[in-house]
């Protein structure tokens, strides 16, 4: 087991597009939650050799200094060999003391929920930080020696223009941020923007802006290695565990684990989690499930899927088994095989969902 995900569900406010498992911060609940995390850790008898730890949310930095300190104490026994310790942060919930605490306890990668560098757009999506806070925090983190910084950016926001997107990329470059995760706004049910009937980009508009983002980032030295992820410094080791479809542990409300052909799903109910009823589902994955999920995750990567590796893992002739799908999309210039890897072309990445549906249909026939 090489990766551990830790979910902290608390937020100081709820963004208009967010559908992640989250609740408003409450100090008493937060302490109870950390005690429940300790219980889950003890019950699961976690590994002691995680190469990556990722604390996500929610907003982990919504916790107080003392609560963060307690969280680090809980996780410290499992971080002896940790190469990448990531933490999601929102600028408005950080201060000098919390940043110092993170660095002292081994956090060496920060993922910042920026979304855009335009204050008027931030207000549209319910963010309460300002672009000035972001810039100030990034410079402070870099001065503290944290060079591995990711920022999340979004396109398709209400009233956002193409010029706004270009200016966001310019700011990213000026700040010398080494990694960016760039997402199109997708509205899930029960989000505020969905309830307000906001109309996101259509497929044609989305593809146009996505192509622009890829081109401009490439011009500035960013390498795309996954559908939504680009790096100038280095890729996310933790997220590569997911995309390579390797086993991982997840703890906390709504967290998932993948272990030995099982997907373990934790409860989404904070009440049940605080009562120490953390496990909701134990799903036994069939070989077909695992094979399709391996394809689904692998084709998100620019490198694609190692054909020899997938043959070895599943005892199959991958090209023979899926020759209908592969040949169909090769003729359309959407898939290609290069150096033993099946991958999407620069055009094919826009049609990934359709390609995956065909792989799934082929698997079920």
TrEMBL record:
One of its GO terms (molecular function) is coproporphyrinogen oxidase activity. It is found in: Cytoplasm. Residues 1-226 form the Radical SAM core domain. It holds the Pfam family Radical_SAM. PROSITE patterns: RADICAL_SAM. Transmembrane segments: none annotated. Its main location: cytoplasm. Signal peptide: none annotated. Keywords: 4Fe-4S, Chaperone, Cytoplasm, Heme, Iron, Iron-sulfur, Metal-binding, S-adenosyl-L-methionine. GO terms for cellular component: cytoplasm. GO terms for biological process: porphyrin-containing compound biosynthetic process. Probably acts as a heme chaperone, transferring heme to an unknown acceptor. Binds one molecule of heme per monomer, possibly covalently. Binds 1 [4Fe-4S] cluster. The cluster is coordinated with 3 cysteines and an exchangeable S-adenosyl-L-methionine. Belongs to the anaerobic coproporphyrinogen-III oxidase family. HemW subfamily. This is Heme chaperone HemW. It comes from Massilimicrobiota timonensis.
């Amino acid at each position: 087991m090489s990766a551990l995900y830790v979910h902290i569900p608390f937020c100081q406010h709820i963004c208009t597009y967010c559908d992640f498992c989250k609740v408003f911060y409450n100090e008493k609940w937060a302490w109870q939650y950390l005690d429940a995390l300790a219980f889950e850790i003890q019950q699961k008898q976690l590994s002691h050799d995680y190469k990556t730890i990722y604390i996500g949310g929610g907003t982990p930095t919504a916790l107080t200094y003392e609560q963060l300190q307690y969280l680090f104490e809980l996780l410290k026994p499992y971080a002896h060999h940790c190469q990448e310790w990531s933490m999601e942060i929102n600028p408005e919930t950080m201060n000098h003391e919390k940043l110092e605490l993170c660095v002292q306890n081994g956090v060496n990668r920060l993922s910042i929920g920026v979304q855009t560098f335009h204050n008027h757009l931030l207000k549209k999506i319910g963010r309460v930080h300002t672009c000035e806070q972001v810039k100030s925090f990034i410079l402070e983190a870099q001065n503290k020696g944290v060079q591995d910084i990711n920022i999340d950016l979004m396109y398709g926001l209400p009233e956002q223009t193409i010029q706004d997107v270009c200016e966001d990329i310019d700011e990213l470059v000026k700040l010398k941020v080494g990694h960016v995760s760039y997402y199109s706004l997708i509205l899930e049910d029960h989000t505020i923007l969905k309830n307000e009937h906001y109309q996101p980009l259509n497929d044609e508009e989305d593809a146009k802006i996505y192509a622009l983002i890829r081109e401009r980032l490439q011009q500035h030295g960013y390498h795309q290695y996954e559908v939504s992820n680009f790096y100038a410094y280095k890729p996310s080791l933790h997220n590569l565990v997911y995309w390579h479809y390797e086993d991982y542990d997840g703890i906390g409300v709504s967290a998932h684990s993948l272990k030995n052909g099982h997907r373990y799903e934790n409860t989404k109910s904070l009440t049940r989690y605080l009562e120490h009823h953390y496990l909701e589902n134990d799903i036994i994955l069939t070989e077909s499930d695992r094979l399709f999920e391996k394809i689904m995750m692998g084709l998100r990567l620019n490198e694609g899927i190692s054909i020899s590796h997938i043959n070895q893992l599943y005892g199959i002739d991958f090209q023979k088994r899926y020759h209908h799908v592969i040949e169909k999309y090769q003729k359309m210039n959407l898939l290609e095989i290069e150096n033993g890897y099946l991958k999407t072309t620069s055009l094919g990445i826009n049609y990934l969902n359709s390609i995956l549906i065909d792989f799934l249909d082929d698997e079920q026939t």
